[in-house]
Design a protein that fits this description.
The protein is of the alpha/beta class and about 750 residues long. It is about 45% helix and about 20% strand. It has 25 helices and 27 strands. Strands 1, 2, 3, 6, 7, 15 and 16 form a seven-stranded mixed β-sheet that branches. Strand 22 and strand 23 form a beta hairpin. The chain starts with a helix and ends with a strand.
């Protein structure tokens, strides 16, 4: 199991998750579901809106059956004889090719023979004469045949329709590469023209324009399958007719169709044989009214050598398409835009390498974010991400605007952004989890403000051991055995007493930035300057010690009142406190099964010994030398003795503390300090008689400081040394043989 999680711990959970996420997103791009295609297409739509094709070259013209034409020549459908006149006039004006964006699937109802059968009360002679007149469809077919440049439109259908036209003319297709038919759109049915018209036409092409799933026309198929045969689009067939080509070349590779071509012109397509149209803005100059052509009002240079598309923009007849730059473009204009794009070499191309380029960009940027994100930090990654994003967008725009290549930057940007957000979320989640662990671990023995500070800067917490200067405190209840005897028949009462005692003691420590290490029965071990740094740890420890004494006094007063009310025996609680400062190791200490955040070091042992000696010296608090040195300017600190505790050979000067700065600056404490210093000087100078005399003055001044026990201690020592003088090398240090 450790081998399994080793790389996770080394690389980081967030990075591992994001690597798998990146791999999944790359797989999603390779799969390329419809929503992803739509997103990419909308990006390319935006590019076309920003920079539509500049339509300087106008090889195509639209003969528009517009409202004016319908008003002048009658409602639609027109007699095919009128359309025959239109074809004849366009041919005379020099049209290079004429294509109908109209399907003539039914006979003309206005043909004389058909009309004769529909008239009522018509005499038979007139009816017979009408039937002898030429059929309108034959007239139209004759005009198409004589023109030699007319292309009729057909429509593909997903249902197997049975519109039977003429035998399918053989339009040659030269296939270069693997069979492209599996990639082509397949229409089982077709709506075709009358056989007489199809036989007369120079070519036939598919009108089918299939919108994308969002209803926008971006691509048109150039080759497709209709009723089992490969057929060209209307525009491609027009180009074949113009170039007098006998065949259309289709080039394919392993991933699909690459291009279609007629002599002198190769047209790139997507893998399904569709052409990406580079649209230009709507321009009324593309349109010529059919009425004006029939009335001879159009100059020859407007039609000469142009590709002519006949369609309609009239209300009710108009075939409306939505394009990237126009929400309502007539279908016939879409064909015109195709011809313009092809002949001006402005076709947009989605190259074969586009997917690979997008995947590589996604992987490279994604991995860079995964590796650098936790190192550089959020602000730097935001700046770097903005730069990379701008470069990707600029590159994609350059390929579109200058090379007409469609390279999508949206997916790499969104993917890497999603990876980055996921990385941030995981790191945030881990950060919150870490903070929760810290709150749980330290909430029981740190002040809430310190816990929050530690939770938001847990990098300061070095688990496993760190060297620091620390202040350590031990406190214990004096005469606890006697107190517990009162509760020998009431253990719950003793527990309640301990809880009532430890609560204010703990609060006093925590309120002054201390950390509770452990409870040992009625004893407390605490320390300062860890896990968070505390520049005033000695001062805070002394403040906590004095506050503990104050709260013990308040607790005793409360207990005394309760004892009187219940007629119970009252024994006041008295505590001894030892405080020492020194270099320690702090961190997680313990075994593999259980550990605790604690502190180790010689200063810890000395603090414990000092607490024990507070009973000997008759003072509630004993400070080590370093603690007293740091606190002497803010507290009433009095030197007690020079001692060596059990287990140590180096002497330690010990002190006690009586109060804060106001007491330290008082005359009374100044007199006590002077008198006690004089006594210590005589004592250490082996003038035991003089020291004993100085003690009298100390007793008088120190009456309110509770120094009777201390004075008694030195009086006994002086008497003992007077009778049994210490050795000649005695330096005033008192060695304790017990804890």
């Amino acid at each position: 199991m450790s081998k399994l999680f080793g790389p996770v711990q080394w690389f980081g959970l967030g990075r591992v998750v994001c690597v798998f996420l990146l791999a999944a997103l790359v797989g999603l791009r390779v799969w390329d579901p419809p929503p992803l295609q739509s997103l990419r297409a909308r990006t390319f739509d935006f590019y076309q809106e920003l920079k539509p094709r500049d339509a300087k070259l106008r090889p195509a013209v639209i003969i528009d059956i517009d409202e004016a034409s319908l008003a002048a020549l009658g409602q639609w459908p027109w007699p095919r004889t009128l359309l025959a006149d239109l074809v004849t006039r366009l041919t005379k004006l020099g049209a290079a090719a004429i294509a109908f964006d109209i399907i003539f699937a039914e006979p003309d109802r206005m043909s004389p023979a058909i009309a004769a059968n529909s008239f009522r009360d018509l005499d038979e002679q007139t009816r017979a004469q009408l039937k002898k007149l030429p059929n309108n469809d034959d007239v139209f077919a004759d005009a198409i045949r004589r023109s030699g440049r007319v292309v009729l439109g057909e429509s593909g259908h997903h249902l197997a329709l049975s519109h039977s036209g003429a035998d399918q003319p053989v339009v040659g297709f030269a296939m270069l590469g693997p069979d492209p038919r599996p990639y082509m759109m397949d229409f089982p049915g077709m709506v075709r023209n009358l056989p007489v018209l199809e036989k007369a036409a120079a070519g036939r092409g598919m009108l089918t324009i299939r919108a994308e799933p969002d209803g926008v026309v971006r691509r048109v198929p150039m080759v497709m399958i209709g009723q089992g045969q490969v057929v060209p689009s209307l525009t491609l067939e027009m180009l074949r007719v113009v170039t007098h080509a006998g065949a259309i070349r289709v080039k394919s590779n392993a991933v699909g169709i690459q291009s279609v071509a007629v002599p002198g012109l190769e047209i790139p397509t997507d893998r399904n044989g569709q052409l990406w149209i580079h649209f230009a803005r709507y321009d009324p100059a593309r349109y010529v009214s059919a009425k004006d052509i029939l009335q001879g009002k159009v100059p020859a240079d407007r039609i000469n050598r142009r590709l002519v598309l006949i369609g309609t923009s009239a209300v009710g007849l108009r075939d409306i398409k939505t394009t990237p730059i126009d929400p309502a473009m007539s279908g016939v204009e879409v064909h015109a835009q195709v011809l313009e794009s092809v002949l001006s070499h402005s076709v947009l191309v989605y190259p074969d390498f586009a997917v690979g380029a997008e995947v590589v960009a996604t992987v490279v940027i994604g991995l860079a974010i995964i590796v650098l994100g936790p190192i550089l930090g959020a602000s730097m990654m935001l700046v770097l991400g903005a730069i990379v994003g701008a470069m990707l967008a600029a590159g994609s725009w350059y390929f579109f605007s200058e090379q007409r290549l469609l390279i999508d930057a949206t997916y790499p940007l969104l993917t890497t952004f999603f990876v980055y957000i996921t990385l941030i979320f995981i790191n945030y989640f881990r950060e919150q989890l870490q903070r929760r662990r810290i709150r749980t671990a330290f909430g029981q023995y740190l002040a809430p403000s310190l816990v929050e500070q530690l939770a938001h800067s847990h990098e300061t917490l070095v688990l496993g051991g760190e060297d620091r200067d620390m202040t350590i405190m031990f406190s214990d209840v004096r005469g606890f055995t006697t107190i517990s005897e009162i509760y020998k028949d009431d253990p719950q009462g003793l527990t309640s007493l301990i809880n009532h005692f430890l609560t204010p003691m703990t609060n006093a420590i925590i309120d002054h930035n201390g950390t509770i290490d452990k409870y040992i029965g009625d004893a407390i071990m605490a320390f300062w300057n860890a896990p968070l740094h505390d520049a005033a740890h000695e001062i805070n420890a002394c403040e906590a010690a004095l506050e503990m004494l104050r709260r013990v006094e308040a607790l005793n007063q409360q207990r005394e009142r309760e004892a009187r009310e219940t007629n119970q025996r009252f024994i006041p609680i008295k505590i001894g406190v030892g405080v020492n400062t020194g270099r320690c190791v702090v961190g997680n200490m313990g075994s593999d099964l259980r550990f605790n955040y604690s502190v180790l070091g010689d200063p810890v042992n000395l603090a414990s010994r000092l607490e024990g000696q507070s009973k000997t010296y008759g003072v509630p608090v004993i400070l080590g030398a370093r603690t007293a040195q740091a606190a002497r300017d803010q507290f009433a600190v009095l030197e007690l003795d020079m001692i060596t505790v059990k287990g140590k050979t180096q002497p330690e000067t010990i002190y006690t503390v009586f109060g804060r700065a106001d007491l330290a600056s008082s005359d009374r404490f100044g007199q006590l300090q002077h008198a006690f210093t004089e006594m210590l000087g005589r004592y250490r100078g082996r003038d035991f008689i003089g020291a004993k005399a100085a003690l009298v003055r100390c007793r008088e001044i120190g009456d309110g400081f509770g120094l009777h026990g201390l004075c008694d201690l030195y009086a006994a020592r002086c008497a003992a040394f007077r009778d049994n003088p210490p050795p000649a090398d005695w330096d005033g240090v008192f060695a304790f043989e017990t804890k």
